[in-house]
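Researcher: Final request for today, and then I'll write up notes for the group meeting. The sequence and the SMILES for magnesium ion follow.
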Amino acid sequence: MERTLVLLKPDAVQRGLIGSIIKRLEDRGLRIVAAKFMKVSQDLAEQHYAVHKGKSFYTGLIEYIIASPVLAMVWEGPAAIAAVRQTMGATRPTEASPGSVRHDYGLEVGRNLTHASDGPETAIQEVALWFSDNELVDWQRDFDRWVFETVDD
Ligand SMILES: Nc1ncnc2c1ncn2[C@@H]1O[C@H](COP(=O)(O)OP(=O)(O)OP(=O)(O)O)[C@@H](O)[C@H]1O
Ligand SMILES: [Mg+2]
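Model: Predicted protein-magnesium ion complex:
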């Protein structure tokens, strides 16, 4: 079972797309582990996007993520990292597959609605950056065995 960090960025929140995007993750069978509606500090934004420091879009990216509240979440499931990135679609909405969030709701790379961890190591780092251990909820759903081939006890 993998866990991944998902951010519904300020444009998704401002445009009233929280419910629509969560619905896609729930419908897919992924299980929510944590959620926090919050304003992002400059410090957290810089830590989260440290890998992009120095790039041409960095300043705009920081301004974008701190401009308005975000919904930060953790989701889990088998291959959750790849599954969530597929549901969100390619970074550039014009390159994202039809049916993905970024294709269906977006046009520009600088307003691409969501963030999702891109690999196992970044997922672990990002979950720890945004959430403390006691905010992560271990739970089971009655239908888990009809979505997950192997269900943990
Ligand atoms: N050329 C660009 N111009 C403007 N913003 C960009 C550009 N490239 C990336 N970004 C922004 O920076 C974010 C991080 O870029 P990254 O390459 O990590 O894409 P990603 O992994 O698909 O997106 P995310 O990390 O947000 O899930 C993008 O989601 C987008 O908001
Ligand atoms: Mg990324």
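Model: The mean pLDDT is 97. The longest strand covers residues 31-38.
Researcher: Thanks, that's everything.
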